[in-house]
Amino acid sequence: MIDQSPNSNNAAQSTSAKRPLYNLENGIHSLKGDGVDDNIASQDTVPWLTGPGANAFFAIAFKANSTSVGYVVHCQGDQGGTSEHTLALLSYTGNSHRLNVGGSFFNFPATLDAVIVYCQFNKSTGTGVISWNGAEETPITVGNLSEIGHPIRLFSRETGAFFDGKIYGVVSVEGDVSFDNRRSVMNYLADLSGVTL
């Protein structure tokens, strides 16, 4: 997955059998995980969240299967708890998915074509905001962990819990992103995933 910024922080998977599949459907590009071992991570030589007090922003466009569970994006090394800087699908009820973002929980309809979600938070205080599919921002509290310097991993955490859906695009920033720019990112990801907000 090629980094579109000047940072060249591309995501890769050295084991071919663990690489998510590339999809092109109706002009929409995505990566598809198998839910077994597929995952991809940014280069360890360009770590994310390099300071314990860092502000951070991430946004992702993804599509879950009807029974999907697992980690969609993970940014906290090999930690396995749910109170981390992470986005995970924890359960499927038949009508909705339960979404965890750093220990805050939300439900969204399983019928959505795709979900575009962003989170802005402060790594030191654990406070932040979340929004998805154009909705108003909601205050959240994410896990306050001291670990720094881990890559961003897609489709799983380092120790497993694999996501079997599609990912259309990811934006991550180590810093404070303005409200206007957060909304611009959401619109950009909506275009990538073919979603009308």
- Specify the number of helices: 1
Nearest-angstrom radius of gyration? 15 Å
Cα shape: globular
For the record, give the distance between the C-alpha atoms at the N and C termini, rounded to a whole number. Answer: 25 Å
Describe this structure in words.
The longest helix is centred in the last third of the chain and has 15 residues, at 179-193. The chain is globular and about 35 Å long. It is built from 1 helix and 14 strands. 8% of the residues lie in helices and 39% in strands. The protein has one helix at 179-193; strands at 11-12, 21-25, 28-32, 40-42, 55-63, 70-74, 86-92, 96-101, 104-109, 115-122, 127-132, 138-141, 153-154, 166-173.
Provide the fold topology.
Elements: E1 11-12, E2 21-25, E3 28-32, E4 40-42, E5 55-63, E6 70-74, E7 86-92, E8 96-101, E9 104-109, E10 115-122, E11 127-132, E12 138-141, E13 153-154, E14 166-173, H1 179-193
Antiparallel strand pairs: 1-4, 2-3, 3-14, 4-13, 5-10, 5-14, 6-7, 6-13, 7-8, 8-9, 10-11, 11-12
